């Protein structure tokens, strides 16, 4: 089940009613309603997935009991963390990377002249597995760091990991930030309803109005960008490849930011606060600034649980560069089992290391508005070009796209992409301008002081999204991760 399914409104209304009609004094009963709803929501994809997430929950709960037990010695508690995190990563590796490594091994054997073409076991990738396993790891580590008390109630650990608004595509929620919310007396209010509606409506417009209408322009180009294939789909001009790459940058932003905002909105309707996941990343003036704004829940997770664990910046400059590169390399592999994602992560890791090196000579840099403008252009050109390996089917397609950017590709006389695709990056620019103006962050009191402006504008956006809503909605991009 996804937010744009026809069944979701009925599901949401039923769960909303059951949750808020349960008396506030029965706090555990309310949590049980949400847990059962989360199981239905996830099992809607494939009931077999419930066994997998159940195993992840059980491992996290058991590891937390040992890791947080202060009566045990430090070695035992650390061993519980290693086992709990290791088992969850092993599950992630089997379901997400088994086919990738098996196919890579076969390819290397064939290159070496060793005949190998066995039929490998194809394992289905459970939706959202990367997200909820990272949340399980967050719980285990936060308990060991004593940022969170050990939770003996399995129901609460299960709800944290399986909470349906952000279950399948994030944002990744920290255990230390979620568990205290279960203790609070949550009450239904107009503030809660308005806040949830604002986030959900804007997110829905992002997804249905923008992302789903950009996808039909992007998919045919990246489906076969090479010269020399079927003339109907593959012979694209250089400008078409460049335009499709820019358009994908807009598509993935509106798609993923839209899902994140809808998830935040749905969670608000049940009294839970999920942190925002995007902060207008295409306004970033450096690659470090970009990662402070893009997929914030993942970038901060990688920083706090991986980069710092590797040593962060505590072991000298060279080790810092290596840690930055390794963190983003693994972050790229987290996104998908393909060499294109490895390259994407490696390029971002290298860019962060170079940025760190340059910032060590900050006094020699251009400052002020001019420096910011130069940084903006360099950052965004890099980000857009590196979207190519993220979206492409293989590295040969990536090189084809990059050749178009550099002018090294012969694109004369080939098929052109429709001019309207260039409206996609303009929509991102407009979104950034509105965002920086503060319009999208109006508080409840501010909204009620100017209801005509806010709700009128939002109504226009929703009406426009409905008018151009595609006959068949595209799946959320991050569901594959």
From TrEMBL:
Annotated metabolic or biological route of this protein? Glycan biosynthesis; alginate biosynthesis
Location relative to the cell: Cell membrane
A Pfam family for this UniProt protein? MBOAT
Q: Which InterPro entries match?
A: Ac/AlaTfrase_AlgI/DltB (IPR024194), AlgI (IPR028362), MB_O-acyltransferase (IPR051085), MBOAT_fam (IPR004299)
Major location (coarse)? membrane
Topology in the lipid bilayer is annotated as: Multi-pass membrane protein
- The UniProt transmembrane annotation reads 6-22, 51-68, 80-100, 120-141, 157-179, 318-335, 365-388, 451-471
**Superkingdom of the source species:** Bacteria
What keywords appear on the UniProt entry?
A: Acyltransferase, Alginate biosynthesis, Cell membrane, Membrane, Transferase, Transmembrane, Transmembrane helix
Q: Is Transmembrane helix a UniProt keyword of this protein?
A: yes
Give the protein family.
Belongs to the membrane-bound acyltransferase family.
Q: What is the protein's name according to its record?
A: Probable alginate O-acetylase AlgI
């Amino acid at each position: 089940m996804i937010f744009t399914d026809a069944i979701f409104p009925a599901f949401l209304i039923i769960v909303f009613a059951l949750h808020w009609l349960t008396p506030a004094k029965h706090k555990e009963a309310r949590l049980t309603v949400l847990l059962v709803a989360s199981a239905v929501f996830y099992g809607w994809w494939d009931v077999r997935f419930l066994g997998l997430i159940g195993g992840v929950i059980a491992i996290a709960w058991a590891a937390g009991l040992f890791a947080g037990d202060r009566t045990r010695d430090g070695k035992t508690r650390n061993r519980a963390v290693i086992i709990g995190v290791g088992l969850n990563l092993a599950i992630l590796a089997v379901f997400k990377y088994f086919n990738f490594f098996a196919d890579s091994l076969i390819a290397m054997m064939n290159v070496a002249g060793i005949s190998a073409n066995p039929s490998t076991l194809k394992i289905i990738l459970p939706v959202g597995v990367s997200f909820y396993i990272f949340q399980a790891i967050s719980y285990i580590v936060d308990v060991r760091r004593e940022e969170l008390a050990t939770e003996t109630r399995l129901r609460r650990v299960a709800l944290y990991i399986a909470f349906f608004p952000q279950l399948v595509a994030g944002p990744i929620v920290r255990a230390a930030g979620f568990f205290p919310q279960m203790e609070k007396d949550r009450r239904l209010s107009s503030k809660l309803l308005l806040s949830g509606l604002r986030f959900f409506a804007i997110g829905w417009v992002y997804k249905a109005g923008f992302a789903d209408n950009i996808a039909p322009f992007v998919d045919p180009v990246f489906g076969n960008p090479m010269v020399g294939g079927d003339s109907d789909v593959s012979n694209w001009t250089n400008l078409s490849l460049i335009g499709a790459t820019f358009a994908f940058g807009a598509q993935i932003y509106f798609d993923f930011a839209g899902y994140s905002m809808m998830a935040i909105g749905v969670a608000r309707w049940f009294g839970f606060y999920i942190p925002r996941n995007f902060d207008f990343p295409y306004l970033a003036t450096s690659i470090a600034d970009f990662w402070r704004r893009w997929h914030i829940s993942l970038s901060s997770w990688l920083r706090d649980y991986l980069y710092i664990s590797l040593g962060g910046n505590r072991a000298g400059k060279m080790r810092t560069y290596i840690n930055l590169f390794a963190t983003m390399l693994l972050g790229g592999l987290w996104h998908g089992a393909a060499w294109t994602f490895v390259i994407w992560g490696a390029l971002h890791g290298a860019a962060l290391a170079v940025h760190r090196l340059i910032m060590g000579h900050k006094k020699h840099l251009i400052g002020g508005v001019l420096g910011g403008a130069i940084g903006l252009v360099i950052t965004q050109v890099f980000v857009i070009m590196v979207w190519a390996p993220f979206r492409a089917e293989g590295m040969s397609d990536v090189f084809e796209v990059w050749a178009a950017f550099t002018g090294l590709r012969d694109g004369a006389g080939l098929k052109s992409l429709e001019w309207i695709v260039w409206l996609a990056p303009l929509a991102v620019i407009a979104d950034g301008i509105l965002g920086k103006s503060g319009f999208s962050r109006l508080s409840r009191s501010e909204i009620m002081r100017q209801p005509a402006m806010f709700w009128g504008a939002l109504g226009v956006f929703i009406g426009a999204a409905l008018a151009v809503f595609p006959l068949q909605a595209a799946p959320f991009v991050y569901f594959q991760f």
